[in-house]
Amino acid sequence: GRVEDWIADHPGVAPVLDRIGMFDVFSSPWFSAIYLLLMASLVGCIVPRTRQHLRELRGRPPRAPRRLDRLPSHAETVVTGTPDDVLAVARAALGRRYRFRGEDARSDAAARPADAPQTGERVLSAETGQLRETGNLVFHVALLALIGALAWGHLVGWRADRIVPVGQSFANTVAGYDTFNPGPWVDASSLQPFTVRFDALDVRFESDPRAAQQVGAPRDFRAQTTVTQRPGAVPEQRVLAVNQPLGFGGTQVYLLGNGYAPTITVRDAAGTVLFREQVPFLPQDNMYTSLGAVKVPAAQPTQLGFVGLFLPTAGTAADGGLISTFPDLSNPALVLAAYEGDLFPGGRPQNVYALDTARMTQLKDEAGQPVRLTLAPGQSAQLPGGRGSVTFERTDRWAGISTRYDPARPLALAAALTSALGLVASLLIRRRRVFVRVSPAEPAPDGAPRSRVAIGALARNEDAGLDEAVRRLVRRLGGDSPATGASDVGRAG
């Protein structure tokens, strides 16, 4: 892989970086220390705030201050009605969203404190918006759960990738994948023993010329598969699509991509088959110009290797070279350069889709020019010097799959959604306290009782609607004074 190549190319600095975990960041001690400290700080924040919040929920709103005109938003007015009647209207106007604490109010006159006003004044304290802090705490707890779920998923989950030509199968074993990335606690011998065979792969590209820039864009990838859940089980026919994975308990198989796998046969001078396989070529652009390599270690006296391009719809570029003009199979062509020498210098593992030519020599024709083989399906070409022949048999498709096991995914999803809801609640809910003092006033000329009302309100956070809330309460009580700032007291009689 690229990491191994980089390590080989930088023998001086690579061991140092490897020692400090730069090639496996998520398993490194310093990265673990970061998220463990984050979790510890979250716990240290959540626990005391939760205790305080529970005490506030069990308690009652605070008593009203004596000078309501000192609060950020306040108003005074005189309305018709007795203090008890006005206070009842205020309770109804504020609604069920508020918690109340009354002094000398009918609902709690028996619980009147000893220092409550004795002048016939009635006082109401109301509070709303406790769910703001609840949402904030839910957000932090869910964030803690999300971090824990991600850590758990990393420890016990795994991911593997494989390119599978149509007509072939793969088994859910470590050896059955091109790459396998297990978590630290994964037992590779306990993988669920299912197999998947790719019977067909249907790929559709945009071909309508009226689509202009969209011509050649992928429209649908869909694979017909035969699935065996476990050894001895009855095979099942299933469809695998881009957003329709195959499920095996907690393991999911996803279709990530596709390409072409031409079947290539290499023979020696006597006609003996040295190599015959479906060779996956990897797309390099939107027209599926694909790069691949063929390695023939059985060739004698020296090993043979081929590297080149597969063009699903071959065309000629302005400079005379071959290009692919459409990603679907319309005029397939295989263009190869041939090499001989040591395919695996030093026995070092290689990328199966690339050819290491460091210890190889490119074959040349009789004129001394590098050999370039251009083949259509069914065509063969002779190699110079009696080295044999190469045949382009046919073209099949391959499917790129990714198998993932992550038992923490449902918990991570639930935690993420919960944290989002908690965050929305903490941002949108406004926490307010409203205080109402009502005292008897001079009766109206017709003898009707009247009361003097003072209203004050404050918010725990920025609240642009606080003044309007006070004005609305004044109107519900029958007054006409607007809410004012702390230094501008209004009164209407």
What are the main properties of this structure?
493 residues, alpha+beta, TATA-Binding Protein, six-stranded antiparallel beta sheet, 7 helices, 23% helix, disordered C terminus
Furnish the topology, listing elements before pairings.
Elements: H1 2-9, H2 14-19, H3 29-58, E1 73-80, H4 83-94, E2 99-103, E3 122-128, H5 130-156, E4 158-165, E5 169-171, E6 179-182, E7 195-205, E8 218-228, E9 236-241, E10 246-248, E11 251-267, E12 273-278, E13 282-283, E14 290-296, E15 303-311, E16 314-316, E17 322-324, E18 333-341, E19 360-362, E20 372-375, E21 380-383, E22 388-405, H6 409-428, E23 432-441, E24 450-459, H7 466-477
Antiparallel strand pairs: 1-24, 2-3, 3-23, 4-6, 4-22, 5-7, 7-8, 8-9, 10-11, 11-12, 11-22, 13-14, 14-15, 15-18, 16-17, 18-19, 18-20, 21-22, 23-24
Helix pairs in contact: 3-5, 5-6
